[in-house]
Structure to design on (89 residues):
């Protein structure tokens, strides 16, 4: 799944779960860097799991931060529970 498709899927999932417009235009793109990371380093299934996880963490007053989303992504883009790279850190 491409990053822009992941952003749309997040919006659609959030809109079906909550009465208000839960994923605003800004929120659709707040996770774009994380989606790019998973797109470049993960599998299609990883992107789907990331979108689902972010949406599961949403509630009417709270959204995962981009840092939280990156932590979710890091757990997905692993081999044997260990990150594939150190991320240059």
């Amino acid at each position: 799944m491409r990053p822009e498709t992941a952003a749309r899927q997040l919006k659609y999932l959030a809109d079906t779960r909550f009465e208000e417009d839960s994923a605003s235009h800004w929120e659709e793109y707040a996770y774009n860097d994380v989606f790019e990371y998973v797109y470049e380093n993960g599998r299609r299934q990883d992107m789907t799991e990331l979108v689902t996880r972010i949406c599961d963490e949403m509630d009417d007053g709270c959204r995962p931060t981009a840092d939280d989303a990156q932590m979710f992504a890091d757990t997905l883009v692993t081999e044997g529970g260990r990150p594939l790279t150190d991320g240059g850190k």
